[in-house]
Amino acid sequence: MLGNSRNQTLHAEISIIPVGTSSTGISKEVAAAFDAIRKTKDIRTAKLTAMGTQIEAVNMRAILNAIEAAHEAVKLAGAKRIISTIRIAERLNASRTLEDDVESVKEKLPKE
């Protein structure tokens, strides 16, 4: 089932590595992928990090659509090959944001 309930959280981390470009730099292709992800329907939040993009989604279909959109954007940017790593976290008993999860960890860190 690809739906979503009120007490469900869907997060994903997508890392796309374009291969077969004319440069060792990949920022052009990554920018195209990130732009495609953030424009995908039902993506609540897209957060760019140095190692990938973290997203919050309304449903699983949105995550899969975002992955496909990112791949298409990187192809259009000229990559000859694309390697992706995708991690999906689906929490069924609570609705939480990416920031909620980070804050929960920070609260448990020893005080400096």
Strand-pairing-aware structural class? alpha+beta
User: How many H/I helical runs?
Assistant: 3
Strand content: 25-35%
Q: Ranges with pLDDT <50 over ≥5 residues?
A: none
Please trace the helix and strand order, writing H or E for each element.
Answer: EHEEHEH
Radius of gyration: 16 Å
Describe the global form: globular
Task: Report the average pLDDT across residues.
Answer: 91
Helix content: 25-40%
* Tally of DSSP β-strands: 4
**Biggest sheet strand line-up:** 2-3-1-4
- Terminal CA distance reads 45 Å
**Largest sheet features:** 4 strands, antiparallel
Question: Please, could you describe this protein's structure?
Answer:
This protein has 112 residues and is an alpha+beta fold. The protein is built from 3 helices and 4 strands; from the N terminus they run βαββαβα. The chain has helices at residues 27-38, 60-76, 98-108, and strands at residues 9-19, 43-49, 52-57, 81-91. It has a 4-stranded antiparallel β-sheet with strand order 2-3-1-4, with helices on one face. Helix 1 (27-38) runs antiparallel to helix 2. The protein is globular. The chain starts with 8 loop residues before the first strand and ends with a helix. The mean pLDDT is 91.
